[in-house]
Structure formats: structure tokens, C-alpha cells
Specification:
The chain has about 250 residues and is an alpha+beta fold. The protein has helices at about 5-10, 20-35, 40-50, 65-80, 105-120, 175-180, 185-200, 220-225, 240-250, and strands at about 55-60, 90-95, 140, 145-150, 170-175. The model is unreliable at about 250-253 (pLDDT under 50). This is YqcI/YcgG family protein.
Length: about 250
Amino acid sequence: MPLLFQYRDIVNEELPLEDWKKEACLAFASKMSNREARFPCIPATHAFAQGHLRYSFVSHPWSGSAGREMAEILAEYGRSSRSFGDYSSLVIFFEPEEEIRSVLEYENVFWSLLSDVSQLDSMPWPEDIPEDPHQPMWEFCYEDERYFVYCGTPAHHARQSRSFPYFMLALTPRWVLTRWNANPQKAAAIAPRIRSRLKAYDAVPAHPELKQYGAQGNLEYKQYFLRDDDTSPGGCPFHRAALKARAEDETVK
């Protein structure tokens, strides 16, 4: 069974996928293609319409295997992402549980997953990206690829742009975002349209942490997981550096 799927493959009745996997993809397709309630992220809707997205599935986020599964999927995606299209992103759906957790519980497991995945990275952290998440140029990296990470959960209600029936992640390579912003006039024209859609889509104003990558005062990690209100964590819960140091200490011992 492949790790990465195209939308047309998932909805093909001949593909032997569990029902929840097809249902998650159909729910995502509905969100991306809704012509009345337009999803705010215009690049994401373009990527879906053009078939540039790739999808994968992971055990529920509290399972002991979720981080390892995600790392394997991300490695596979990173090796081939440039062949999927200019707007490509990796969308990961997690197996549902009977219980819907709180927003803060999903936030905690989100950062735990990223930390676990980072520990499995076989390549050094990119020299051009600071390892400290409290630096404006920091972003999540895996196998020498830089990513913007989006998280949606079934616990979000006011912020519908972060609401989804399944716990899900969307990882967009930095090279995709760089290409999108290569035409400053086009990017400048689309930015207010995104904000306008966001205002109509969510029941609350745009989160104050939504800023441009690298801009003064921006901390990228605060945009990865947006809470349903305007609060944000006081410090980044990404523990790669601490876990790396602990692993090195154990190796020395």
C-alpha cells in the first residue's frame, strides 16, 4: 500500500481503504470546494482544484506509532514533492477516536508529534534556519526541507478555518510559498482577499499572530496551531533541541 495518495485514488471505490479515510478526504474536498463558504486560504483551494495535494493517513495522534508513521510519510513526500505541482502540500488525516478532546489537548499532542518526528530526522538541521523557535526565521524542518505546518481539529468551533472533523495536518514546503510570493503584485492583490474570506469564514476576528514569515515580531510557531480564541502559548512547545541534548547525553553515558 502506498504512503501518498491523490484525491482521485482515494475516492475510487476499487481502492481498499477504510471508510474513515475516504470520509476524511471527502470532508476535506467539501471544505476546499465550497462555493458559498469559501475556505480562506486561496493557495490551498488552488492546490486542491489542480490536484497538487497529496494525502496520507496516520493512527490516532495519541497512539505510540503516530510520530514514526508521520516521519516515514514526510520523508516520502519530501523526496517527491517537487514533482507534484507548484502548489503542493501534504495533508495528513489521523484516525479518529470516539472522544473529542479539548483544543489545548490537541495543541499538546500536535507539538509532541512534531518533536517526535524531528527526533527521527536523519539529516542535520538546516544551517540557514535557526534551531530556536523564538527566532523570526525559524520554521519546522525535516530531512533538509522547510515546512509551514497547519493543524485542524474537531474541537475548534469559532475559528472554522481551523476546524475539521478529524485531527489533521497540512505541511506546505517553503519552496511552494516562495514561488507563490515570487510575483509581489499578485501576492499583494491576493492577501486582502484572503483576509476578507477569513473574516466571513470565522466567527471571531483573525488571530493576532497571523503575520508574514520573517517579519519583525512574527514567530512562525504561533501560527501552526491557532487556538479558538486569541491566546497563544507563552513559549514554543517544540522540544527538538532539548530532546537532542538528552539523547546525546544518554549516548555518552
